[in-house]
Amino acid sequence: MNKNVTNVRGFKCWGAHTGVKSMRRDLAIIYSEVPATAAATFTQNKVQAEPIKLTEKHLKNNRAQVIVCNAGNANACTGDQGKKGAEAMAQAVAEMLDIEAEDVIVASTGLIGQKFPTEEVVEGIKENIHKLSNNHKAGAFLANAILTTDTFAKEAFVDFEYDGIEINIAGVAKGSGMIHPNMATMLAFVVTDFNIEEELLKKTLKYCVDRSFNMITVDGDTSTNDMVAILANGMAGNNKATSEDDPIYLLFRERLLELLTQLAKLIVSDGEGASKFIEYRVTKARSGDVARKLVRAISDSSLVKTAMFGRDPNWGRIIAACGNAGVSFNYKKASLYIGDMNNMVLVLDRGKPIEFDKNYMKKLLRESNIRVNVELHTGKEEAIGWGSDLTTDYVLFNSVYTT
Predict the structure, then answer these.
(1) Which residues carry a binding-site annotation for substrate?
(2) Is 392 annotated as catalytic?
(3) Cys staple from 394: which of 223, 273, 298, 300, with CB 3.0 to 4.6 Å?
(4) Distances from the Cα of 179 to the Cαs of 147, 265, 279, 328, 365, in angstroms?
(5) Which domain holds residue 361?
(6) Last residue of a domain, one of 239, 269, 299
(7) Domain total in the chain
(8) Tens digits of per-residue pLDDT, 300-342?
(9) Where is the binding site, in residues?
């Protein structure tokens, strides 16, 4: 049995059906038995949903004890009615658990611009909060309760031991459409029993999100509701990590990045209408920032994504995308490899086109897992990102999404 949120010390959770969505669970709650150090990253969209605004306000003290999320309504572009709805969610949780409303992280996902069903959501909170449990089943219910167009639940768990102390980290995520670097319609909630200083946790979350969720794309659209939140309740009992030089901290950061990367890949693999999972690597770059920007430019190119869907070995689209990345790029120094996860074909060698068997390349591109590797030959840094192809099924699905 795979471990989940319920295997992290001091955390309970639940996922319930309240009726906002007709068939699926639509209310998720995560509760720490003690106040936790908390941090979050949010959407870069200028139009922010009401729960995003409220949670940013609540996290000014870097503390929280509960995450509550409804699915089926984004509570975005809902004005004062939606603002009061988000506040009512926090207040209902606070009253039922005898904590402060400011200690509640609020999230929502679903359709934008629909009146927020405050009454149904609040009633659902009151009816279900007593069901909070550390039973494994509760973790599975939680993972399913945050989904919208997803086809499967997304969970991950990692642990490590240091000086006889076991540290646990678990997370759930949702997302399959409106996925784009800088986060999009995706939510991720992470819990850990690691003891860590507040500002260091904030810095660590940003570091890991930049290298995981901010390196994925499905369709180039950024949503109003994106959030990655983490609660660290310290119940593992380790001495509080306060320095980036602390060996236990470095292990924690490494494992947190591993967990977020697992969740990010699951989101891409569930991309709406996607038929391929594509890994993009930019290596031998002069800086990590340059490498990440090039990965994002390639992975977000509609022409590259449609070429991958059509099994078209049109490598010029990849090089053209690099030239549009907003960073210095000299194609005469670049080499490019394309293929599946086991076989890579060199198509450009330091700016010189290489003859290759197009039929063999098309055979490789039939695979569901594809790899693109650009070598810049300007340094030693690299970046990895993940994306999907752009298919006719994606267009069809999103053309009738609300009808």
Answers:
(1) 148, 174, 185, 272, 398, 403
(2) no
(3) 273
(4) 14, 12, 15, 26, 23
(5) 277-399
(6) 269
(7) 2
(8) 898 999 999 999 889 999 999 999 999 999 999 999 999 998 8
(9) 148, 174, 185, 272, 398, 403
